[in-house]
């Protein structure tokens, strides 16, 4: 019984993953970028997107 329970707990831990998201904003509160990372069964991934911030360009 203990072996079955230990096997179940180990398998459940191996199949569990985690994720994290970070978003950046300019001084007016508009989003200018974000990154997301995920780690789970079969490996991990990360992706980032960004936008040009033209605030104060002609000053």
Explain the overall architecture:
It is a single chain. The chain is of the alpha+beta class and 59 residues long. The chain has a domain at 17-50. It is 24% helix and 44% strand. The protein is built from 1 helix and 3 strands. A 3-stranded antiparallel β-sheet has the order 1-2-3, with no helix packed on it. Strand 2 and strand 3 (43-50) form a beta hairpin. The longest helix is centred in the first third of the chain and has 14 residues, at 2-15. The N and C termini lie far apart (73 Å).
The radius of gyration computed from the alpha-carbon positions, rounded to a whole number of angstroms, is 20 Å
Name the average pLDDT: 75
Shape: rod-shaped
Strand order of the largest sheet: 1-2-3
Order of helices and strands: HEEE
Which structural class is indicated by helix and strand composition? alpha+beta
Uncertain spans, ≥5 residues at pLDDT below 50?
A: none
The share of residues in extended strands comes to 35-45%
Short description:
24% of the residues lie in helices and 44% in strands. The chain is an alpha+beta fold.
Give the topology, please.
Blueprint: H1 2-15, E1 18-25, E2 31-40, E3 43-50
Antiparallel strand pairs: 1-2, 2-3
List keywords for this structure.
single chain, rod-shaped, 3-stranded antiparallel sheet, alpha+beta, 1 helix, 59 residues
